[in-house]
Amino acid sequence: MAVVHFPRQFMCYTKQHKTYTTEGSCVSDVLNNLIARFPGLVGPVFTEDLHPLPFVGLFIDGKPVTSEHDRSRPLESNAQLILINAVAGG
After folding, report:
1. Quick check: 52 pLDDT over 90?
2. Residue 87 confidence (pLDDT)
3. Which whole-number Å values give the CA distances from 46 to 38, 39, 40, 52, 90, in the listed order?
4. What does DSSP assign to residue 76?
């Protein structure tokens, strides 16, 4: 089972859940399950084709998910997916 971790800024789209545990053999499977459970993430966090918006980072076990190859790579059974919100300042 993969665990998805949400930053506080995204919890309004996840019914205040900090984490979500789901099945999935690859990142794409996990994202499909995630959106089925929390459809409000589409638009403010993900595009319709489930790619993170430019200000959102997606990491699997500490490594960035940046390509289609990364999205289809098999996941370990205890995978940790982390969504982060970019921080800007000046």
Report:
1. yes
2. 74
3. 11, 10, 9, 4, 26
4. P
The C-alpha atoms of residue 39 and residue 37 are separated, in whole angstroms, by: 6
Number of other CB atoms surrounding residue 88 within 10 Å: 5
DSSP character at residue 15: T
The tokens for 20 are: 């979500």
The pair of structure tokens assigned to 64 is 């960035």
Please give the Cα distance from 14 to 34 (Å, whole number). 9
Query: Structure tokens of 27?
Result: 């990142």
Q: Which residue has the tokens 């930053």?
A: 7
Residue ranges of alpha helices (H) inside the chain are 27-37, 68-72
Q: Which two tokens stand for residue 73?
A: 């790579």
Longest distance between any two alpha carbons in the chain, whole Å: 41
Q: Which residue has the higher pLDDT, 65 or 87?
A: 65
Residue 88 pLDDT level (bands cut at 50, 70, 90) = low
CB 88, CB 9: distance < 8 Å: no
